[in-house]
């Protein structure tokens, strides 16, 4: 114990003059809660379709809603856009996508396009079998994949159909760095964005941080909650329309959102994953049509062949985007793909592995509490065994960063889970915690839109035998009801700085959101990727458990002395 104390005092005196950014090595941290700042309203109204940022700015024949997405490697990138007029109302007629070509002209110098690439185009419709619901059919949605690009280089491009003299104005992008020990300078992470005054605030701040990549962790536009007229349960979403007339979705919202995002997405690749607000059921039991048709994702390039889950590399970071609204069971295609994808990773080339899906596994807010327990029980062990470093989710409309955790136990080799479902959507911010008196959801609340219900009572720790804790759980390091976005700056193969940018902090000095260095410990946690043999046997060595224990004692001591 003497040496521990010595270490503590050394640490204290050597850092007292500055306020160093903590690292995960200082954890696990004593849980901290910041409730909603009472000077802020919980939310704001939707930006109307008449807002200039949502209005169409070019003629019908010209490309609009231009957006980029990364491919598996930096030598390739997706360019997407929309032409033609979407229709909404009775008797809509789908446009013919063969009437307009999908061309991208590009090159390394502004105005000089040495390369041309063609791609494909398509349309989708959103139809409802009730007179009170408006039918919709989209403009023509184009996707072109550029290939043969150099990593870390700026390219200039135009898109459209040259035979119709309908090429866009010039835009440019910088390709991501090559894998290895090169890292994209800043990656923005945002979830549950919607299109309110809070969402525009989030996106303005995100843009001012000049990210090289945007991770959009599901629930994009909330087109299913714009101008909903109610019915049973207002606002109505996924009411699945036996109750018609109810406006289930207002699809022009997607077009408004595409225009609103274009200044950003035409120059920075944005990677999306589906959330529950993308389900959008329609006639014939069809779902996800807008999500699946509008966004190009590297599904073929990453061997998933499903736009619901895929992976890609951004420099030395391997990203895995998982689908929480398609089969995630061990017996299913997604799980097999995930296992193969994890197995293929070479940590010398991509030392960092970041996974992301919409609905969080670890969440201490009342909202969506334990909603995705089934998914956790199916997949957590696999992610842990392959040493996934960070997990980003949304869905809960507030911020929460977990202590390193595995199977609900503090574990120095568990991923750092972070929830950022607070981009600013119309449902407003979540402010209640499952451990607040009277706020523990009943076991029949929080039923997921997909997958089963696996709610469980804790088997160990202070909440043993209970569904909710009566204080902030030990696995929740920091939680705060604020809108904003996060930035991850990977420094090297073991250090990454994570910062939470709250909307209310814009233009204010000395006011910062959560920040922490996420530190990998490959020596401590190296998983030599053993096959999963038993459900009960822990793959951790004694050494790891010992280190974990010491770390916990130390940090408890540290916290108490403050
Ligand atoms: C959301 O935006 C509105 C309008 O700008 C503002 O009054 C409110 O405080 C914001 N809420 C949060 C939590 O930032
Ligand atoms: C929408 O399309 C469906 C399927 O074609 C049709 O049954 C329905 O009547 C249409 N609704 C309107 C308002 O035209
Ligand atoms: C629907 O629109 C098509 C094409 O505009 C037209 O030919 C057809 O008569 C219309 N049908 C109805 C029922 O209005
Ligand atoms: C376009 O579609 C064809 C046929 O479906 C396919 O072979 C090709 O790869 C597609 N091209 C792009 C860029 O998606
Ligand atoms: C996943 O497994 C659970 C439990 O066996 C089952 O209830 C559920 O229906 C399965 N889901 C799918 C999509 O197969
Ligand atoms: C689970 O915990 C709740 C209270 O948190 C309690 O009412 C319930 O009986 C417990 N269920 C089991 C099976 O222990
Ligand atoms: C990684 O960066 C951190 C923070 O700047 C630094 O302390 C550490 O020494 C670096 N590690 C290596 C291997 O360069
Ligand atoms: C997780 O914890 C539960 C409850 O303690 C236990 O039954 C289960 O076997 C554990 N799972 C793994 C993969 O260790
Ligand atoms: Fe959600």
TrEMBL record:
E.C. number: 3.1.3.2
MF-aspect GO terms: acid phosphatase activity; metal ion binding
Highest taxon of source: Eukaryota
Pfam families linked: Metallophos, Metallophos_C, Pur_ac_phosph_N
Keyword terms of this UniProt record: Glycoprotein, Hydrolase, Signal
Annotated catalysed reactions: a phosphate monoester + H2O = an alcohol + phosphate
Domain called Calcineurin-like phosphoesterase: residue spans: 186-399
Similarity comment: Belongs to the metallophosphoesterase superfamily. Purple acid phosphatase family.
Protein name per its UniProtKB record: Purple acid phosphatase
Organism in which the protein naturally occurs: Iris pallida
UniProt lineage: Eukaryota, Viridiplantae, Streptophyta, Embryophyta, Tracheophyta
